[in-house]
Write a structure and sequence with these properties.
116 residues; 46% strand
Length: 116
């Protein structure tokens, strides 16, 4: 049974930082590239960061230089360090392996709100 549990969201001022964490069931963690996605109100879910099984990373242009994704293989956890937050980062953030359709399994997500 796949399990994804996201945490660490909250309300932050512009320019602030948050650290998101995603606990991943062992059945998928070690063999899949993992990503952090976000969905803002009225918008489609978008992929913002990827960490490959070997540790290399990729980022959407909108978060490059501000967000850092990493994985803790000992704890089956995917992390997202978000710095220099902007109002447009406001969204529900999810983690998952790549290529999962909206109709597939997703965790509950964690709300990030950036507002002054």
């Amino acid at each position: 049974q796949v399990q994804l549990v996201e945490s660490g969201g909250g309300l932050e001022h512009p320019g602030g930082s948050l650290r998101l964490s995603c606990a991943v069931s062992e059945s998928i963690f070690s063999i899949f590239d993992m990503g952090w996605y976000r969905q803002a109100p009225g918008k489609q879910r978008e992929l913002v960061a990827v960490v490959h099984t070997g540790g290399s990373t990729n980022y959407a242009a909108s978060v490059t230089g501000r967000f850092t994704i990493s994985r803790d293989n000992a704890k089956n956890t995917v992390l997202l360090q978000m710095n220099s937050l902007k109002s447009e980062d406001t969204a529900v953030y999810y983690c998952n392996k790549l290529g999962v359709p909206d109709s597939g399994y997703w965790g509950q997500g964690t709300q990030v709100t950036v507002s002054s």
